[in-house]
Write a structure and sequence with these properties.
- The protein has an 8-stranded antiparallel β-barrel.
- It folds into 2 domains: 3-201, Beta Barrel (Hypothetical Protein Pfu-838710-001), CATH 2.40.320.10; 216-502, CHAD domain (Alpha solenoid), CATH 1.40.20.10.
- The protein has 15 helices and 9 strands.
- By secondary structure, it is of the alpha+beta class.
- The radius of gyration is 27 Å and the shape is globular.
- Helix 8 (269-304) packs antiparallel against helix 9 and helix 11 runs antiparallel to helix 15.
- The longest helix is centred in the last third of the chain and has 39 residues, at 424-462.
- It starts with a strand and ends with a helix.
- The mean pLDDT is 92.
Amino acid sequence: MATTTHREIERKYEATQATTMPSWSSVFDVEPETHDQQLIATYLDTTDLRLAGARITLRYRSGDDETGWHLKLPAGKDTRDEIQIRTDTVAVPGPPPGELAGLLRTITRGAPLLPVAELRTARHVLRWTDPEGRDLLEVTDDAVSARVLPDGPEKSWREIEIELGPEGDLRLLKKADSVLRKSGVRPSSSASKLARALGDRVPAQPSPVRGRKASAGDVVVAYLRDQAAAIRRYDVEVRRNSDDAVHQLRVATRRARSALQAYGKLLDRERTRHLTDELKWLAGVAGEPRDLEVLRERFATAIAAQPAQDVLGDVSGRLVAWFAPRQAKARELLLEALDSERYLALLDELDGLLADPPLTARAHKAAATVLPVELGRAFRRMRLHMAIADEHTGLQRDLELHEVRKAGKRLRYAAEAAAPVLGGDAATLISHTKEVQEVLGDHQDAVVAAPVLREIAIASTGDRENAFTWGVLYGLEKCKGVDEAALAAAWKGLRKYAKKVCGTA
């Protein structure tokens, strides 16, 4: 079975039997290719529709040249990543392939994937291609008949889809959208055919918490819910080895942990302590492959910036030889962690907290009153480490500045949680905090990079390679102290705004 992946950018529109397809002459000056299809799709999910609740669809479809398994994952507005495993059989051949089931492990938590709906679609296709025959845009007119399994009622409807081809420009999608809207066709109220078939059986998405009258607890729990969803989403992407997935998984984990720590007076600290510790473990496991990725990119950039005469020996080869096995091992350990019972228990514990949050009496007070005070606590933690750092030099100062940076992350993520209520004040506080973090981050990266470069230089020498370039890079990193002027300016701005938002400086 061949596996392929592509990004699908499409929009759906509601139509009736009286709807007539508009002219497309304002979009294309040529007639489209046309053909008809009879599609049969069986959708699988858990009995409580966990995939549908995560806006993920898994189906087996026949009737076109893409017969087989289709897994669609959300990837942004109007956008999904589709993984296909093609087969030759018309009927569903049995359980989904382990490759797909494994990607969904965090969503399903081991629950079986069973048929939940069958859709039959009579499709009329209009397709435009470029002179080389590559797809630009496809418009489909679908007559759909759907039945919820095993014995639900049948629903029928008509809808129109426009999908951008691999060689199409987003402007084509916008033009096609305009044509349909001007003809009286309106966007579909359902995200997918399956969602329309299942109707109110699909788990409802929580309403966003906004407004200064919201309770502090509701705001923080909503933020935690977003991070739990992000962990599940990027878990799938890590398993797919998608770009930046490890970084995003780590960030979501840190955000959740920071919220629990910063808002410990709103959520019973004793009841969240174990979860906080487990989130630290997960962030640590994800941190190793991410840190290696950052270091490798840093060294590659530094090598490229050197004069050609200072790059001696097979520097690129040594870079690969050093990082590749370590990155492979770090990824292997991360995947083992994601497949562990400990990780599943963490997710269950996080879901349990969201279902029944251990709110304190303070959490029921107005967010606009409570959250600035809690942000002030987070800022004072950052200020304490900055004061200690200013009393020291050398290694001890480096250690304390690293604590300032970590405390800054807690403040920043806490401000993100408060943003739906505090609005622009939170956004500006985040911006000032990031400025401090960026100054300290560049210094911390140099602190971490120097000993690694030393190890690479020693290994190169041991293998009788020229280690000159690694010594140059080591020296450059060792000479990178903190940009004190930039730090002072960034810190001054943060203190000023923290006083405005939190009443503390």
